[in-house]
Specification:
Layout (H helix, E strand, L loop, with lengths): L15 E5 L4 E3 L7 E7 L2 E7 L2 E8 L4 E2 L1 H6 L6 E4 L3 E7 H10 L2 H14 L9 H23 L2 E10 L5 E12 L3 E3 L5 H5 L3 H23 L7 E5 L10 H12 L6 E5 L3 H4 L1 H14 L2 E7 L6 H6 L4 E4 L1 H4 L6 H16 L3 E4 L5 H9 L4 E3 L9 H14 L1
Parallel strand pairs: 10-12, 12-13, 13-14, 14-15, 15-16, 16-17
Antiparallel strand pairs: 1-8, 2-7, 3-6, 3-8, 4-5, 4-7, 9-10, 9-17, 10-11
Helix pairs in contact: 3-4, 4-6, 6-7
Bound molecules: ligand C2E, adenosine-3',5'-cyclic-monophosphate and calcium ion (2 copies).
Adenosine-3',5'-cyclic-monophosphate binds next to strand 5 and helix 1.
Length: 397
């Protein structure tokens, strides 16, 4: 069987590629298993032997995962897998897959286990194929994010932050972008929440931090007008429990000569739910190191005023939900006015997110909002576009 032909040294070296010609068997029902696979190209037919006959269960193609069931349940292969055209597979070792599943959220683990049992005819209840494909596709995304980080498929785009009134750019928010082969641009909402359910967000977070420091350095090297600009980095709740967080931070600051006063760390109230004291002490340490801290999506979370007064943040970012109707809705106006008033009274810089038109921008400025961000001023763009814009602005000033 093919699995036994993989040299042992490769077994822990995911991702490792294997090719099959048309008609070659990948595994047979009942085989013991040590790998799962992601199909890179070609097709694998999944069939089950019933006496002398065989029933085709599925034909799987590029992007599909195959052979995961046996590893999840530690049982023999539930079906036969045969290449029906020349096929290239990425090998996922048992350790690798089990680590992924372990890191996945409990629902995903549950769905995979139930599906696996049902396929073997001893399921406790019905499992919908939809659930299974959702679970497997989450597993695939998690795998692809990890591989994509290594392959350089991610980038940071910069969205300008301006001073309301003058529209002068004062900094940028770094927003992650993923160009996933075969899928094109994948929005962060499709993978950040998933990554946040596992330690995958720690890898993303480290990468983002490093890349943002590198961007700040490049802005300074190339941009005539960039000296005082900041770059804002989004931190997820789980990063607050990352024992390696400060190691990453120290390393990046040294490597890129970054001045922490020019980095804003954006956090949401979500960081406070699990362990308020720990989150607070991490924030305090960041503040002592010189970082600027911003409370993101303000108004959408718990927005407990007692939290706000205890959080050592410098900036409040009012969520787009309250900003978008500010010129036309008196309720939106009152909300923004009171949040801006509160922020200003606490000595915080107030920023409005998601500004899309001039009327809203003018109204926000009148209500005491100092900074703005939104499509009116620019979408998140690659570094060289940002540099180009800066040069134009500088020349015009
Ligand atoms: P966020 O931090 O609240 O980022 C603002 C989002 O609003 C961005 O979406 C941005 O493109 C979008 N936006 C900005 N201006 C406008 C506007 O005028 N109108 C509208 N309709 N939208 C606007 P994006 O880039 O898709 O990011 C979504 C979320 O993903 C972010 O929300 C943040 O929570 C998360 N995210 C993005 N990059 C990272 C990252 O590097 N690390 C972490 N942990 N999370 C990230
Ligand atoms: P495993 O049991 O390790 O080996 C056989 C593989 O075939 C199994 O994992 C799944 O990846 C796949 N498989 C089994 N049954 C089906 C099915 N009904 N539809 C799609 N794939 C299946
Ligand atoms: Ca943000
Ligand atoms: Ca936000």
């Amino acid at each position: 069987m093919f699995v036994r032909s993989i040299p042992h040294t490769y077994m822990h070296d995911s991702p490792f590629l294997h090719t099959l010609s048309a008609g070659q068997s990948l595994f047979r029902q009942g085989d013991s298993a040590s790998c799962a696979y992601i199909i890179e190209s070609g097709r694998i037919e999944i069939s089950r032997s019933i006496g002398d006959a065989s029933e085709i269960l599925a034909i799987l193609g590029p992007g599909d995962i195959v052979g995961e069931m046996a590893l999840i349940e530690d049982l023999p292969r539930s079906a036969n897998g045969t290449a029906i055209e020349p096929t290239t597979l990425r090998v996922l070792t048992r350790d690798y897959l089990q680590e992924r599943v372990q890191q996945a959220d409990p629902l995903l683990r549950h769905l995979l286990r139930r599906m696996s049992r049902r396929l073997r005819g001893n399921a406790p209840g019905p499992v919908h194929d939809r659930d299974h494909s959702q679970a497997v596709s989450q597993l695939q995304i998690a795998h692809d994010v990890q591989a994509g980080l290594e392959r350089g498929e991610f980038s940071i785009h910069l969205q300008p932050v301006v001073r309301l009134g003058s529209d002068v750019v004062v900094g940028y928010e770094g927003l992650i972008r993923w160009t996933r082969p075969g899928y094109g641009a994948v929005p962060p909402s499709d993978f950040i929440p998933l990554a946040e359910q596992s330690n995958l967000i720690l890898d993303i977070g480290r990468w983002t931090f490093q890349e943002s420091c590198a961007h700040l350095q490049k802005l300074d090297r190339c941009g005539t007008a960039s000296r005082d600009l900041f770059v804002a980095i989004n931190l997820s709740a789980r990063q607050f429990t990352d024992p390696g967080l400060f190691h990453t931070i120290d390393k990046c600051l040294r490597e890129y000569g970054t001045d922490p006063r020019r980095i804003k760390l954006e956090v949401t109230e979500g960081i406070l739910i699990q362990n308020f004291d720990r989150a607070l002490s991490v924030l305090q340490r960041c503040r002592e190191m010189g970082f600027q801290l911003a409370l993101d999506d303000f108004g959408t979370g718990y927005s407990s005023l007692s939290y706000l007064s205890r959080l050592p943040v410098h900036m409040l970012k009012i969520d787009r939900a309250f900003v978008k109707d500010v010129a036309t809705s008196s309720t939106a106006r009152k909300v923004v006015q009171s949040v801006a008033g509160l922020g200003n009274a606490l000595g915080l810089t107030v920023l409005a997110e998601g500004i899309e038109n001039r009327e809203d921008a003018d109204e926000l400025a009148l209500l005491g909002v100092e900074l703005g961000q939104g499509y009116l001023y620019g979408k998140a763009q690659p570094l060289d576009h940002a540099l180009h814009q800066l040069d134009i602005e500088f020349a015009a000033a």
